[in-house]
Amino acid sequence: MPLFMDVHHTLPEGATFDDVAGAHEADLRTQDRYGVSYLRYWVDEGAGKVFCLVDAPSAEAAADVHREAHGLVADEIHLVQEGS
């Protein structure tokens, strides 16, 4: 399955790492309906950015999970390959 990295450029006002963790949990509860697997996420609270790594059949499916789970759709979604 394709691997995507999504980028959220701006967190909602006052959002914290714990808020993002809660949104990720909502993604996990929703993802199976779309054939998606949200794998990891990174938060830069200072810059207000979030990055999510996701296995998904398409960028649209990844966005649909975020939209349904919590409404915070990424600003960018990039097809990526994992290296070591």
CATH architecture label: 2-Layer Sandwich
Main sheet: which strands, in order across? 2-3-1-4
Q: Secondary-structure element sequence?
A: EHEEHE
Average pLDDT over all residues: 96
Low-confidence stretches: none
Give the helix tally: 2
InterPro entries: SCO4226, SCO4226-like
Protein name: DUF4242 domain-containing protein
Pfam families: SCO4226-like
Organism: Microlunatus ginsengisoli
Describe the structure.
By secondary structure, the chain is an alpha+beta fold. The protein has one domain: Alpha-Beta Plaits (2-Layer Sandwich), CATH 3.30.70. It has two helices and four strands, in the order E-H-E-E-H-E. The chain has helices at 17-30, 59-69; strands at 3-8, 37-44, 49-55, 76-80. It has a four-stranded antiparallel sheet with strand order 2-3-1-4, covered by helices on one side. A hairpin with a 4-residue loop joins strand 2 and strand 3. The longest helix is centred in the first third of the chain and has 14 residues, at 17-30. The two termini are 18 Å apart. Pfam families: SCO4226-like. InterPro entries: SCO4226, SCO4226-like. This is DUF4242 domain-containing protein.
